[in-house]
């Protein structure tokens, strides 16, 4: 018997506390193809790839072949299908949405999947946000006889360096994808300081899919940023009821409890965090920054290297490791780390910053070789 969906958590909403959003908060056009996308879909080159490689592989080749659209990964914003196509870039969720939009137009079978891989953490003003990872599975149009054969599926993953079909996944509904899009929009508005917009986006996500646990964390952060610490605490507590060992929720809730005057409970949660997660994300990084600023570059290098070892795709960790190498006179190692920082960064602004630092370092190294 199918489980009934959770009711929207309306008791957690405080609409009167926020002005109306400055933009439309809906996802009605999330999968809508733009005229340019339709023209591409009906082009001779697109049809040729479908005929040559089959529906699934042909679609992926038509969209992501570097000789064609030059679509790239960019984590700066979560976009609709049409926006992603126009920008020629998007994060994993945006690329999944755009791929699904084309696949739907071709009457292909689609499965959305949440990937059981390491979460991607970010920080803003000491508050933690986290996002998961999704991919998409494509199969040819449904045959007349409904015998679903998973061997015909093509799993498309925009981040993983391993065989995407081997990743452990959990199937998602399309409404889950829409809710994740809304939550991402909320987090992005929050980072930009547009707290009211963030509230309306995360409210929409939780109204659509109350089981979206990351959205509870986002809503609580919104309340903290808008000066409603007790309401934020209430939301965090509900999130912990649903996921008692959630690292990100406890990371945010523990200092909030202390700020709300619940010192003993805050200390107990901090101790529990230490037991469950003795070295949480950013643990060695934070220690490394302290060592770097104290002038202990050898210790900083060791600590940053530990973060790089467990999060090799985090550009920030490579950047600081490169700075430590530079301070120790290890120019070759510093150049390598700055190059990796630029390669792994999913933000165009950071890539430009890293490229400038790398160019400066190479200039120094060239000058030393001439002397």
Structure, briefly:
This protein is α+β, with helices and mostly antiparallel strands and 371 residues long. Helix content is 56%, strand content 9%.
Question: Can you offer a commentary on this structure?
Answer:
It is a single chain. The protein is of the alpha+beta class and 371 residues long. The chain is 56% helix and 9% strand. α2 packs across α3 (55-64), α9 runs antiparallel to α10 and α10 runs antiparallel to α11 (263-276). The chain is globular. The model has no long low-confidence stretch (mean pLDDT 86).
Structural class: alpha+beta
Order of helices and strands: HHHEHEHEEEEEEHHHHHHHHHHH
Number of helices: 16
- What's the rounded overall pLDDT mean? 86
Strand order of the largest sheet: 7-6-3-8
What is the CATH H-level superfamily of the domain at 1-18 and 180-277? Answer: Tetratricopeptide repeat domain
Ends: how far apart? Answer: 77 Å
List the helices and strands and how they pair.
Blueprint: H1 35-41, H2 44-53, H3 55-64, E1 72-73, H4 81-87, E2 89-90, H5 92-105, E3 109-115, E4 120-124, E5 127-131, E6 134-139, E7 154-156, E8 169-172, H6 174-191, H7 195-208, H8 213-225, H9 229-242, H10 247-259, H11 263-276, H12 283-293, H13 297-310, H14 315-327, H15 331-344, H16 348-370
Parallel strand pairs: 1-2
Antiparallel strand pairs: 3-6, 3-8, 4-5, 6-7
